[in-house]
Design brief:
Helix content: 25-40%
Largest sheet: 3 strands, antiparallel
CATH superfamily: CBS-domain
Strand order of the largest sheet: 1-2-5
Number of strands: 7
Number of helices: 7
CATH class: Alpha Beta
CATH architecture: Roll
Radius of gyration: 18 Å
């Protein structure tokens, strides 16, 4: 049985919540990685920043659709959801663009569970946390590399 500890990357690249979004984007691009853990001053995991979070800035702002029903207005999108989208589109810092409280795995999580999470939730990168501490990261390439090495 293969577990996360066997395949995770422990040479961690991290960013901080107050880092400029363009600097974080350059790190993702230069290191050729899809996502990067966001840690606070104590080294605690507070979020994850993925390429898709940055690409969101290229989206057009969705205009909430409203229709009338019995002389009342009914919103098809919530103001809270619209506010989240506006913050991501206009993000200047990592904290404004990141996904807070990311899904994490433990070092003893089986690779099958990781693969299922990645496929079912469309995750490309999962932080590995042990005793509330970031200890590694596992990505789709790590899982794929393991699958390929087992076919030899």
């Amino acid at each position: 049985m293969i577990i996360v500890r066997d395949i995770m990357n422990t040479d961690l690249i991290t960013v901080t919540p107050d880092m400029d979004i363009s600097r974080a984007a350059k790190i993702l691009f230069d290191k050729r990685i899809n996502g990067v853990p966001v840690v606070d001053d104590n080294g605690s995991l507070v979020g994850i920043l993925c390429q898709s979070d940055i690409i969101t800035q290229q989206k057009k702002l969705p205009i909430p659709t409203i229709f009338t029903f019995l002389d009342g207005f009914v919103r098809l999108t919530s103001l809270k959801q619209l506010e989240k989208q506006v913050l991501k589109i206009t993000a200047l810092t990592v904290s404004e663009a990141m996904t807070p409280k990311p899904v994490t795995v433990r070092p003893d999580t089986e690779i099958e569970a990781v693969a299922a999470l990645m496929v079912d939730k469309n995750f490309h990168t999962l932080p590995v946390v042990e005793d509330s501490r970031l200890v590694g990261i596992v990505g789709k390439e790590d899982v794929l590399r393991t699958l390929l090495s087992n076919t030899d």
